[in-house]
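Tutorial sheet, problem 5. The two components below are modelled jointly, 948 residues in total.
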Amino acid sequence: MADSAHSAPPPSAALDAIRAAVGEKGVIEGSDRAPFLHELRGRWPGETAMVVAPASVEEVARVVSICAAHGLAITPQGGNTGLVGGQIPFGREILLSLKRLNKVRDVSPLDYSMIVDAGVTLAAAQDAAREAGRLFPLSIGSEGSCQIGGVISTNAGGVNVLRYGNMRDLVLGLEVVLPNGEIWNGLKRLRKDNTGYDLKHLFIGGEGTLGIVTGAALKLYPRPREKTTIFAGLKSPDAAVALLSRAQTASGGAVTSFELMSRATLALVYKNIPDSRDPLGEKHPWCALIEFSSGREGVLREVVESLLADALEAGELDDAVIAESEAQAASFWRLRHTIPAAMFPEGGQGKFDVSAPVASVPAFLRDADAAVELVCPGARIIAFGHMGDGNIHYDVLQPPTMTKETFQGVQDDIERVVYDAIDRYQGSISAEHGVGVARRDDIARRKQPAEIAMMRAVKRALDPKGLMNPGKML
Amino acid sequence: MADSAHSAPPPSAALDAIRAAVGEKGVIEGSDRAPFLHELRGRWPGETAMVVAPASVEEVARVVSICAAHGLAITPQGGNTGLVGGQIPFGREILLSLKRLNKVRDVSPLDYSMIVDAGVTLAAAQDAAREAGRLFPLSIGSEGSCQIGGVISTNAGGVNVLRYGNMRDLVLGLEVVLPNGEIWNGLKRLRKDNTGYDLKHLFIGGEGTLGIVTGAALKLYPRPREKTTIFAGLKSPDAAVALLSRAQTASGGAVTSFELMSRATLALVYKNIPDSRDPLGEKHPWCALIEFSSGREGVLREVVESLLADALEAGELDDAVIAESEAQAASFWRLRHTIPAAMFPEGGQGKFDVSAPVASVPAFLRDADAAVELVCPGARIIAFGHMGDGNIHYDVLQPPTMTKETFQGVQDDIERVVYDAIDRYQGSISAEHGVGVARRDDIARRKQPAEIAMMRAVKRALDPKGLMNPGKML
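Model answer (structure tokens):
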């Protein structure tokens, strides 16, 4: 229970008042605190005077009011799956977990909407929609443990963004406990509402710096009745851009996922993941996993076969396999999903989650590859990801002959040249993962000063005491 | 060139500096000013010291800088088609028209995006997309004259929202001249970017109160290859909710429009619009115009026929005609589009543009009808609109036997009971048209105080001098 060097310990009166507000079950003690204070990669060890888990929106509001009165800062936390340290307190903040707010409040199939507590896991939200005959389309690797509140606060993306959008696009309304402890009930389930600034968009992707999301009204979709999954071999990212555009046009926008993987990426999978094999015999410099979905049965297969034939003839495609079963489709997806694990044994990594306009991705890759080779000769580039959204996970692996220390020494140079390349294409240096503590200085350095000034003005306006997740994002 | 009572005339030094910044062609004088100062309904006559039309983003920035230095307020204006007076200056503001910023800067079919100036008309933006083999899907009645900047600032909706969303959902990035005259280049064309607050959503639907939108990066879609349009006879709005849900599920989300019209609404069309006739012989208490679209050819007709048969059997539908030609589909749409003209000769009107969760629309209609009858017996309810989005244009016509003056005297009561009904279903009192001056007091009275406080805090943070479209929205 150490405090960070730059702040006094929280007043015990405040901690006592919080304890009284949430009861004994609402305060997590001893070794039970560890899962809240350590994130996946172990990069940002957390420190806090108190881990509090209120059981209701009203309890959250009471805790925040007490903190506001005492000038005590708060780091809200969902499933603790974030990759940029945004959910970790560093001494002077209490940690407020939303895990006990875990009810699906209402599912309305006729409205194609549902209302859930912030602490409901993404998987539980998907299940609730499925049980009502509907689809909640967001899907990410951590869906079993990440929570809706965190998914909203980080505007998560994932593999279905191409068709259904990011989390931002799936939120109809929010309930938020504001920095002064007031509850804002913005849980409208409307498709149209033009009555002032659309404030929910500040909290979506706001990383908990403006308030604590406690509930959300979400959009649902009809469930697709048919899927067609293909594994394609391509000459280049340029071919992927052309193929994606053709697939979108020919299928009338039925492309749900378009995941690109370089040969070097797949080679690591085949090397390090048992029982993995290339559906196309490891012959192609680039591969794409493409999934189409349709609300009607019996129409996709023919459309896909015909567009693949056209793409072959146009030279956009070199070869492709259509999954003949769900098991085969799952085996394609397994290749994609095991990429992070396949990289693990390969030494030091510089990891970048960038995006560019889709048509600029090939040029970005050429520029970045050349620039990285200059500052770190022999570095292995593992490029893969959501090509359909222009979102590339661009990871740079330590050259096999280089020591980890030497590689550490060039990390800053690698970051600089990758970011410079993304800037040339008006891209984003954090497409999905957010800012947190990991990218805070980068954002401050690289965004237009007018935009940083607006962000700071909004922060001061809505959280004048600076108590909501301080030190994150801005 | 009168000034409003509560403010001094603008300093002539400021007006001279603006004139010098934009040149003679940039200042609109004499009788040429009239089209900028009078809006469609003649409800809010405008007054201003200067109508200025800069020719470039830089000129806009220069004008705003001069205004900031002199404390001179600005009302930005697009195509002057707004229905709530948001685009009209009332004496102390200069009027800044975006009409000369009218270039399509770039269309990128591979990125499914384009960048346009704010002064490009919606129709010109649609045309530019079409020429590139793409669809810009927003469609509203005023599309020939409304401008992209205004469409963004009012977050316009229209007939395709069900499938493609409101304008908010179609904007990838914005260029905005901020209240201090700085140009914010937020014209990113990214599908994913999590690097801080998503500030563009403050300007979308911001009604020009935070800055002046000068350019936008917009999403494009594949063009649909096939449309099926039906005209359906229904027993009730409840039947419409069930039919809509069935249509969405059975077609896999291919419903593009679902417009509901009451018998009273259509009766006025048949009475007052020459050559209009009911495709179903005026037999049904409610009718729906439903349009499906698909990116593939030859699949829709069968799906639609089969779902209509199922809906008939389930009692959700009483009869339906499928348009056999584009001309027949256009004749269905003509019925829908002539409703406002059909109401015109019928005397006084109270017009409401409300929304509720889709499944609550029938209950709202029952409640509102009963409440209006109590405060204005014999009033004719003209209910129609975008049922697919829960957005109803709920218009109350003067009873035939009542004088215009008596009807005027009950307008406030009618408004109160309609709004009370919409509040009961957590609806919106302005679904599409915005706030402007028309709904400003209503919003202030009916929104949660915490939300109004946040809106005001954001306004103060980004426009501390209060120079951007003062008196509008909040």
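Marking note: DSSP finds 16 helices and 18 strands in chain B. Full credit if you identified this.
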